[in-house]
UniProtKB/TrEMBL annotation:
Superkingdom of origin organism: Bacteria
Major localization class: membrane
Gene Ontology molecular function, alphabetical: transmembrane transporter activity
Gene3D superfamilies: MFS general substrate transporter like domains, Multidrug resistance protein D
Record-linked CDD domains: MFS_MMR_MDR_like (cd17321)
Keyword Transmembrane on entry: yes
Residue span, Major facilitator superfamily (MFS) profile domain: 21-452
Chain segments annotated as transmembrane: 20-42, 54-75, 87-106, 112-133, 145-169, 175-194, 206-223, 229-250, 271-292, 312-329, 336-355, 361-380, 401-426, 432-450
Keywords: Membrane, Transmembrane, Transmembrane helix, Transport
Localisation: Membrane
Organism of derivation: Sphingomonas crocodyli
Entry membrane topology: Multi-pass membrane protein
Protein name: MFS transporter
Amino acid sequence: MEQAAIAEADDGLPLPRRYWAIAAMCCSTALVILDAAIPVVALPTIARELHVPASSTVLTVTVYQLTLVMAMLPLSAFGDLIGLRRLYAIGLMIFTAGAATCLFVTSLPLLLVVRAVQALGAAAVLSMTSALIRSIYPSHQLGRGLGINSLINASFTALAPTVGGIIVAFASWQWVFAASAPFGILALLGVRALPDPEPKSHRFDWTSSILSAATFGLIVGGLELGAHGGGALAAASVVGAGIVIGYAFVRRELRVERPVMPVDLLASPALGVALIGAMAGFMAMMAFVVSMPFRLENGYHYSAGEVGSMMATWPLAALLIGPFASTMADRYSLRLLSALGAGTSVIGLLLLALMPADVTPWGICVRLFVTGGGIALYLSPNARAIIASAPRDRAASVGGIFQTIRLLGQAIGATVAASLLAFGLGSGPGPAYAAAFLALIAGLCGVVKIRR
């Protein structure tokens, strides 16, 4: 009986159940991406209608990100305990209820509370996503499964600003936060089709979970504080406190049998170095994406609308290249694909750094497309290598650390961009050079250690 279960897990779900499970996963990915990307468009409207400073509305984004990164690893461990599908369903219900509650919010403090609740639900969903995808698809189609997830991610990232703008133009700002609720309902309808691996029989480690939340919350919170002008000393102090607690956290994790953060697996060069490469890739992406609009507006004197249209080329490239790269990761060498992707992104970033003063919008779009396509070509096989390298019964833990690395890399990348802007270097080629260096590090990690 046990051997049959293992064989079924390796072969994925049977058809047509697999299709229903894929549809449910697509809906859950769409709702999380929409919820993270849409609200930024509504911040000026929220400030005006709630009569609060514009800087205060940024807390709706900060609180969401902090809660997400603090909850990711503890929830991935909790999912192993109560069952992946059960926690996934609970997360969807919490998230959808929070989205619906936003319709009745009339103050900023209440909005922040609801956003924290939504982030808890989103963390539960994200922490289970990689493990569920691995169980849905046969082993030889894992890259395809991750590619479909990447396709939904890129599509809704590209659509989110447009959707948010339409909602703000024709409805109250509360609907911006409630827009993802229908996807939550659709995903809940498909929960029964998802795989349901046997839960683990062990106690939940509250101490490690608290240390994990404090470690990543303080590090990311300190980086956010520095990026938003909170002062270098204060930001460094908060990050330093997170590093000290993180040291104690890792020391404890090395001694326990079922660590919240899979430190035993991170000792494997294939996984550890692949995660470092992923972090460098996400840092490069965020450092460049945050800073490039300033360069285009201040250095090349394009309007905000023109900048938005040109920057849309980046997610368009990810939309087209990402699924193709993930499918290729099932067939060809991951080292080759990683080297090709990282090399392409480095070339694109250097071309962006060296743009002449008379560059045309078409020339900028071509450079952005090359860079975005290169990053997608790198991150897709890198994600497959990370998820496939973990034992099946630890897939949730590795999925949780991968999502945490993504959030941490994005936070560090945004801080790099903010620092360059603070020193007057953000409107020049500096961020593109910095991103090219980070992409080079990511490529070296992929070439040196990623294995089939």
